[in-house]
Design a protein that fits this description.
Number of strands: 13
Largest sheet: 6 strands, mixed
Distance between the termini: 14 Å
Shape: elongated
Strand content: 25-35%
Low-confidence stretches: none
Length: 177
Amino acid sequence: MRFFTMEQDKRLPDVIQFRDFDICGPRHIFYKENAGEISESNMMYLTKDSGETAPDFIQSPVSLVSDKVKAVLDMYEDDMVFKTVTIASKERETIMVYHHLLLERLDMFSEKTEFYTNGSIKRLVLDPVKIGEHKVFLLNDKRFPNPLVSLEVVESLLRRNIIGIVFKEVEVEAWQN
């Protein structure tokens, strides 16, 4: 059992830029339980001098995924919640459709997770029993704002030639039978 954090690749050149938002800046995290408070469809605009590269995962201002990523996540995890976000460029007269990713927060920490005295994480270890059948989730801890995905999800995404996503492996406790 292998899991990875899913993060936006900040090194991607010529990336799109939102008007009134900085996609490399601070984030606003909404969860599955906030779904009722968010409109089914939202609109965002690109700046006049926006880049042209649209990553398949945008971390900020909110977690957004492309149609490709949405389809894969939906295949592997039941009860996924997405809200449509239309991104428009008035200058280029283009429209892109993304999906606001609303994940369930779950406590998947192993007892082997280690903390520094100031409360920050020294060594993150996930508990395979708590993970169970989940393939996509968010840790119930604000120190970990990025989605976690299983190896199967990562492989499926990579076969679809996604761009702008970095996967970093997270330790999972050895399975005890």
